[in-house]
Every structure is written in C-alpha cells, then in structure tokens.
Amino acid sequence: MMPILAAGEVLIVFAGVMAYIWRLQFTFPDFAVILLVFIVATFFVHGDRLQKDLGFGSRGLVAGLRVLAVPTLIIAGALILFSPISFFAINRLAGLEKYFAWSLLQQFALQSFFGNRLLQALKNQNRAAWLNAGLFAAVHLPNPVLVPITFLGGYILTRVFFSTRNLIPLALSHAVIGSLLAVALPVAWHHGLRVGPGYYRWN
To answer: What separation in angstroms does the CA of 136 have from each of 8, 146, 198?
Structure first.
C-alpha cells in the first residue's frame, strides 16, 4: 500500500509543480502554499524523521561535504576559467546567501519529498535517483542549459542524499555551481536561469 501511496503523491505534486510553473504562478500564486502544505502533510503520513529521513541536522553533514567538495571545486574552477569573473560578476555573486536559501528549498523538495517517495515506490536507489533526476530536469524546461545540468546534477545529488541524508552539502554545491553558471555562461544561453514561460519572456 505504501509504495502505491508514495507513487501517487509524487504524481500529484509533480503535476502541481508543473501547473504552477506554466500557469498558476500567474493566476493563483498561493497554490505554492497549498503544495507545500501537502508535502509536509505526507511527512506525517509516512512518519518521516527530521534527521534520518528528511536530511536536517548534523547527521551525514561531514560525509556529504567530503563527497561533494572536490567535484564542486573542480566544476567551479572550470567555470571561472571558462569566463574570468569580472567586477560585474562579483557583484552578482554577492547574493550567494539568498541563492543558497533557494537551493536548500529546491533540495528539500527534490530529496526530502521526491527522492524519498520514489525510493519507497521503486525500492531501488539507482532507479529512484534516475527518475528523480528526470523530474528535476523536467521542471527546468525549456532551458537548454539547465535541463541537462539538472538531470546529471539531480542524479548525483540524489545518490549522495541517499548515502548521507543531509541537505546542507547538496544545497551548498547547488548554490555555488548555479551562481557561477549564471555569470560564467552567456545570458543569451540560459536567459537568467529562467524556466517555464519566463524563459521566453526574457529580454
């Protein structure tokens, strides 16, 4: 029963997220609150625990940092070398703490909800991670830069979450790489990292 329930919850929330991105953010912005309340309610239904299941707390923090530190630094270094950081870019990176908060929220939804539910439904970490990556990439449509990056990054971060159960290292890696992508690549490629209709409305 629980695997079926978990799969149903994933379908409901994913459909809600896509509807919000493509339509409801303009016509019913408070729908995001309804989605968040639904997600939190599922935590109580499944008896999820803050540290062991949802990724909050100190458990797995050091292990996650160790796993992600080197690849994050390598990717960050490559992005900096690809496009030397200008004074203008440094000013844009000044809001990194705000982007970290946004990254943490994304990883919370991606891992604490979608990752956990997919693992419950599929009973296989590798398949759950690939499907989670696919969902993560889908919500970044039609951005040609973010879709492949979030697919690969979504898989890697989901596998790290399954093994360490801590959101902080994931959010840090997400924030650093995402911020550098925004300034290292031409804006004409990623349209300010926008997704959904906003990608087309970029000017």
So the answer is: 17, 10, 17
| Rounded Cα gap, residues 192 and 199, in angstroms | 8
Residue pLDDT, tens place only, 99-158: 899 999 999 999 999 999 999 999 999 999 999 999 999 999 999 999 999 999 999 999
Contact 137, 147 (CB under 8 A): yes
Q: Is the pTM of this model over 0.85?
A: yes
- Quick one: 53 exposed, middle or buried, by C-beta within 10 A (0-12, 13-18, 19+)? middle
Query: Dihedral sign, CA of 73, 75, 78, 79?
Result: negative
Q: Residue 94 to residues 20, 54, 82, 180: CA-CA distances in angstroms?
A: 29, 29, 20, 11
